[in-house]
Amino acid sequence: MTTISILGSTGSIGSQALQIVEMHPERFKVACLTARARKDLLFEQVRKFQPQMAGLTEAIPLTEVPADLRHIQWVMGPEALHVAAAEVPADQVLVSVVGIAGLQSVMDALEAGRQVLLANKEALVTGGHLVMEKARRIGKPILPVDSEHSAIFQCLQAAGPNRPTGLLLTASGGPFRTWSREQICHATREQALHHPNWSMGQKITIDSASMFNKALEIMEARWLFDLPAEQIHVLVHPQSIVHSAVMFEDGAVLAQLGVPDMRVPIAYAMSYPERIPTGSEPLDLFRTGALTFEPGDPERFPALRLAVECLNAGGAACTVLNGANEEAVAAFLGGRIAFGDITHTVEYALEHCPGLPAETLDDIFQADAAARRAACAYLSGLKGA
Ligand code: NDP
Ligand code: MG
Question: Ligand 1, from 7, 56, 200, 325: best to mutate by most atoms within 8 Å of Cβ?
Answer without folding.
Answer: 200
